[in-house]
């Protein structure tokens, strides 16, 4: 209805006034518990335009400076080129920031691992101590949804670790998807994790899992995992892929949606090489009866050996792994860039659907 659209804009305006997104003087004048929006993100949201949230852990912990800054700028550029506004999320000096300036982005990149990896559980501590935090999937989802962003792009999400039924080692990404209404665009879950149990856990959390241009859930480095997704969510068309998040928004279900995008075919050969090493390492761990907390370090070290040191793995928070050498190619960060491309197009479709819906409500009242 027209009244609901007006109410949304009023609430949004009140939020912008609260966060002080256009204030000068850095973060010193933003109070504890407030969120700071960049000017371009604030303007885009106030006009109902497409915005794509981006995490910052991949910048601080995924690769060294200056490759991390180059990567961040390239991914943001892809989002802009496809009609959306990028909103990289981080906590700087205790202030949650949605949308970083060039200076803030470079500061975070230089800071690197000195920034605390921040998931949901860490937010209170980082904010209260005025610390710097690089947001993981769960924290990025929270802040993005809080300000009205409906699409979030990342490389891959965490999942249920192998033997998770005994260790209860389950990424907070999964529980966040069950309670935060945002569409997460990722390359799936790495096979070093337990993909079938991850999907079972997402089902328990009530999360709709969709795949782009396939009926099979991708395993990050390869297009297939052996696990099927909901057939009603399969489509090669961006418009149809956008209908699930839009329906989720309209129904106010309160849960997220996971849209898994397979690795581009031109990069699948490199992915298959790494996947082969992962599977060999998993078999060796099983044969040697390496389980529990000892398994992941063994797998990471063994895969690095099997690939001749060309596939160094950097461990992120909540079971998310970044394959540093694979992802940090300055010319083509295949997975993240492809996800950014798809995510920006979905965000654009969602924004158009929202506009058409508001116009439809207005016309029905006139």
From TrEMBL:
It holds the Pfam family Indigoidine_A. One of its GO terms (molecular function) is metal ion binding. The keyword Lyase applies. Keywords: Glycosidase, Hydrolase, Lyase, Manganese, Metal-binding. GO terms for cellular component: cytoplasm. This is Pseudouridine-5'-phosphate glycosidase. It comes from Rhododendron simsii. The keyword Metal-binding applies. The lineage of its organism: Eukaryota, Viridiplantae, Streptophyta, Embryophyta, Tracheophyta. It comes from the Eukaryota.
């Amino acid at each position: 209805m027209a009244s609901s659209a007006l109410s949304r804009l009023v609430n949004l305006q009140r939020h912008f006034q609260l966060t002080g997104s256009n204030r000068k003087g850095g973060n010193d004048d933003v109070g504890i518990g407030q969120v700071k929006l960049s000017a371009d993100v604030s303007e885009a949201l106030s006009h109902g335009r497409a915005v794509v949230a981006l995490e910052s852990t991949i910048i601080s912990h995924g690769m060294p400076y200056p490759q991390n800054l180059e990567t961040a700028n390239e991914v943001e550029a892809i989002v802009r080129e496809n009609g959306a506004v990028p909103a990289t999320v981080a906590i700087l000096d205790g202030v949650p920031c949605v949308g970083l300036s060039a200076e803030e982005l470079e500061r975070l990149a230089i800071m690197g691992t000195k920034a605390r990896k921040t998931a949901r559980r860490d937010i209170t501590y980082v904010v209260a101590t005025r610390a710097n935090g690089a947001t993981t999937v769960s924290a990025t989802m929270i802040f993005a949804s809080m300000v009205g962003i409906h699409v979030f792009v990342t490389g891959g999400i965490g999942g249920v670790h192998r033997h998770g039924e005994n260790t209860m080692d389950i990424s907070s990404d999964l529980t966040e998807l069950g309670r935060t209404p945002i569409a997460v665009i990722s390359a799936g879950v790495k096979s070093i994790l337990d993909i079938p149990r991850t999907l079972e856990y997402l089902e328990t959390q009530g999360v709709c899992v969709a795949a782009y241009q396939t009926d099979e859930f991708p395993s990050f480095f390869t297009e297939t995992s052996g696990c099927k997704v909901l057939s009603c969510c399969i489509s090669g068309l961006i418009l149809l892929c956008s209908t699930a998040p839009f329906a989720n928004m309209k129904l106010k279900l309160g849960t997220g949606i996971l849209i898994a995008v397979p690795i581009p075919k031109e990069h699948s050969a490199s992915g298959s090489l790494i996947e082969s090493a992962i599977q060999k390492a998993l078999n060796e761990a099983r044969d040697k009866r390496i389980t529990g907390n000892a398994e992941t370090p063994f797998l990471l070290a063994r895969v690095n050996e099997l690939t001749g040191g060309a596939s160094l793995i950097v461990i992120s928070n909540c079971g998310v792994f970044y394959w540093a050498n694979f992802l940090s190619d300055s010319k083509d960060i295949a997975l993240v860039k492809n996800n950014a491309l798809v995510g920006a197009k979905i965000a654009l479709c969602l924004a158009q659907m929202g506009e058409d819906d508001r116009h439809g409500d207005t016309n029905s009242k006139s």
